[in-house]
Amino acid sequence: MAKKRGNAEVADLLRVGPGFRFDDVDPDATPGYDGDKNDGEKDLAAGLEKLSELQERLFAEAAVGEAREAVLLVLQAMDSAGKGGIVRHVVGGVDPQGVELAAFKAPTKEELAHDFLWRIEKRLPQSGFIGVFDRSHYEDVLIGRVRELAPAEEIERRYGAIVDFEERAAASGIRIVKVMLHISRDEQKQRLMERLERPDKHWKYNPGDVDERLLWDDYMAAYETVFERTSTDAAPWYVVPANRKWYARLAVQELLLGALQGIDPQWPGADYDIEVEKKRLSAS
Amino acid sequence: MAKKRGNAEVADLLRVGPGFRFDDVDPDATPGYDGDKNDGEKDLAAGLEKLSELQERLFAEAAVGEAREAVLLVLQAMDSAGKGGIVRHVVGGVDPQGVELAAFKAPTKEELAHDFLWRIEKRLPQSGFIGVFDRSHYEDVLIGRVRELAPAEEIERRYGAIVDFEERAAASGIRIVKVMLHISRDEQKQRLMERLERPDKHWKYNPGDVDERLLWDDYMAAYETVFERTSTDAAPWYVVPANRKWYARLAVQELLLGALQGIDPQWPGADYDIEVEKKRLSAS
């Protein structure tokens, strides 16, 4: 733990600022962390205990009290950048009863017949929960823009719609943490190659992954526009260098810890008379 | 692992047979397991690796193949028997992306306006998933019967409706494992007392828990009727002695392993030309 700086500092280092460019980010870097992989894995395990207690307090406050807070982690990335590993190793460590996970695929016909935020709104986390979006409404301004799935003016409209939507969600008590896991093109090539080489990974490979990869620069440009238009105080974007999986997991854990510490949930007091209940229970 | 018998044997020992009576079950026992708590915790960790791989294979088969199988774990118990611990320590160890958890509370007004199985059907697991019901449609013939929340003839109708419903779910590919965690009255008293004594547990205590506790014998009779009427080959009931939490977790893990081994999911083969894709990827 001594090797790790406080999470406020890590959040500051990773938060997207004005004029953000990917050229300024090294996907191999470990901003705010001086340790190596071994340290990182130990710190991840230690952080998990803190995260678990905070999650349980958040859940308890909403279950029996008036608390309305929730946390929403939005995960975006190019293929193979490690979203699944974050879900498994960061979020997967807390009590699944307090987690709501939503994986957004290509929209269905029914979903396409509604505004792009219709399916998203339905999956916002309840009070007391940690929600995780594995892909999100941002696909509608990422692949939506790169593949021209909607007219330019519709894409343009969506940035504002997203900002309004997220502000409303934040005002209702949801702390929103938006993370883009950033790997290099070379790293992606290696990871996709591994999927082709290992029979237990074949199912994770899709020929379409290479088609998207060929549009890498277009995607990076689309992400830069997303950051410029939608990184707000209510719902900031963080770009997490993700060539080192252990660092990305640690960094996202820090961001979640920061969000929960910001809420600072407390164990709710008893809304019954403890001594009376002890007597009733003893007599039963 | 040497101390543990095979899971087919554990399943046989725990499976509810004709004429089942709680009087014949010792909630302190550890059927099919000769080890102690330490052994049990080690075996749980070892079993988790097997469970994780089987879960991923199940998920993979449904994600890219034609496989339609899923697993559904139904958890029922008196308060404090450890349903939450099963979710946390048994199910919580596998990839959350392959788990669908549904906690059924007292039905809402909308739910009450439909047949009792309406809300249940909607939460059946998709192909490839492990679904978990934390309480279930069985509440409608347990508290429903004990508290007379519905007329006797309606309760009577429900047993048959449940059997039909579960047979249909099983025919669609869902392996159903129904577990009743069985603790003694004394054990429950201690666990509820702990909730009253620890400020971080106060939120888990509800004065209504003692009211239900006073109806213990009625609940046990209602469970015995449930077993008699709804334990079928398609959806068998298991009564798991649960005074020792470590044993209950190990036993439920064994039951889940058995269900998954019964499905025997395999890594799906590539539905693309691996060599062609390697070349495309290399050139990209």
Automatic annotation (TrEMBL), chains A, B:
Coiled coil: none
Region of interest: Disordered: 18-41
Domain Polyphosphate kinase-2-related: 37-263
Source organism, top-level taxon: Bacteria
MF annotations from Gene Ontology: polyphosphate kinase activity
InterPro entries: P-loop_NTPase (IPR027417), Polyphosphate_phosphotransfera (IPR016898), PPK2-rel_1 (IPR022300), PPK2-related (IPR022488)
GO biological process, one term: polyphosphate metabolic process
Presence of keyword Kinase: yes
One family name in Pfam for this protein: PPK2
Keyword annotations: Kinase, Transferase
Xref: SUPFAM superfamilies: P-loop containing nucleoside triphosphate hydrolases
Protein name: PPK2 family polyphosphate:nucleotide phosphotransferase
Gene source species: Microbacterium pseudoresistens
